[in-house]
Amino acid sequence: MTALELKTYEIFKSKLGEEEAGTVLQFIDEKAQEKVSAQKDAVASKDDFRKLEREDSRLEQTLKAETSRLENRVGAEAARLESLIKSETARIETVIERGLKEQLKWLIVLLFGFASLIITVIKLL
């Protein structure tokens, strides 16, 4: 017993008697031990912090790896889409060019046809 416990025991002993003083002090001691035990459980230990730091580090590495993987996928997809857009643009330009050439050809044929018609009409007059 510490000096404080002894003094407390003497005070309770004079007021309550020897047996009751012992019982009261035992009760107080048990309650104090329960409270200390509960606080120990509630407070994280250094090992808990180390575990959390390792877990945090592992999650950070996983996140970086996943981010890098997704960036690579997005880059590859962007390159694929850019290539697809370029090829489709070239195809559309070719189709438009062919259409314009065809229209120009028929325009020239019609001009010659109308010119021939006009010349024929002038000769007949």
Q: Which class best fits the helix and strand makeup?
A: mainly alpha
Low-confidence stretches: none
Count of distinct structural domains: 2
Distance between the termini: 144 Å
Mean pLDDT: 89
User: Percent of residues in helical segments?
Assistant: over 70%
Description of the structure:
This protein has 2 domains: about 45 residues; about 80 residues. With about 120 residues, the chain is mainly α. The chain is rod-shaped and about 155 Å long. The mean pLDDT is about 90. About 95% of the residues lie in helices and about 0% in strands. It contains 3 helices and no strands. Helix 1 crosses helix 2. The longest helix has about 80 residues.
Please summarize what this structure is.
The protein has 125 residues and is mainly alpha-helical.
Chain-wise SSE layout:
Layout: H1 3-16, H2 18-42, H3 46-124
Helix pairs in contact: 1-2
Search tags:
2 domains; 125 residues; single chain; 94% helix; 0% strand; mainly alpha
